[in-house]
Amino acid sequence: MPPITWHPGLHIGIPEIDEQHEKLTGMINELCLAYAEGRDKAVLSEIIIGVADYAGYHFDAEEKRMREAADPEIEAHLAQHRGFLGRSIGFLLSFVDGREELTVEVLDYLTGWWVGHITGTDKNLGRYLAGRGAAS
Predict the structure, then answer these.
(1) Domain boundary assignment for the chain
(2) Is there a contact between 73 and 82 (Cβ–Cβ < 8 Å)?
(3) Which CATH number applies to 13-131?
(4) Which of 55, 88, 101, 126 is the most exposed place for a label (fewest CB within 10 A)?
(5) Which of residues 133 and 93 earns the better pLDDT score?
């Protein structure tokens, strides 16, 4: 479960979204590091709640940009967001509630999904918004 290394290749060309991606990446890395260090449940739970809240904020911001630009891929993109919130964030919140255990596999899935989403779906969004003159 190595940390996600933020680098320019993860930028999608939309400054607002790139800043949010970098911040959420840092929060995910903080969670992974705290887990690897064996931090207690209270610390992990606080980080998880922050990740969940910020992921919701970020996805809302992306959705607004997609709607404003009439992105034809919006439904598929939003379905990915819902899946992430339901599966990854939902599982993490189940840990906070004491219904699940946090594992390396969960964190590997979380980091893998996040990087894959940025480098795939979000990169496509960046190209679409740039083509519409909506990249700033």
Answers:
(1) 13-131
(2) no
(3) 1.20.120.50
(4) 101
(5) 93
What are phi and psi for residue 89, nearest 5 degrees?
-65, -40
> Is pLDDT of 28 > 80?
yes
Please, are residues 71 and 125 in contact by the beta-carbon 8 Å criterion?
A: yes
Determine the Cα–Cα distance for residues 119 and 79; give it in Å rounded to an integer. Answer: 17
* pLDDT of residue 1 exceeding 80: no
Higher pLDDT, 44 or 131: 44
pLDDT at 133: 79
Could you give the CA distance from residue 14 to residue 115 in angstroms, rounded to a whole number? 16
Of the candidates 13, 7, 28, the residue with the CA atom closest to the CA atom of residue 123: 13
Distance (Å, whole) CA 97 – CA 112: 24
For residue 136, pLDDT over 80 is answered with: no
CA dihedral (52, 50, 121, 86) in degrees, to 10, reads: -10
Rounded distance between C-alpha atoms, residue 109 and residue 102, angstroms: 12
Looking at residues 119-129, what average pLDDT do you find? 96
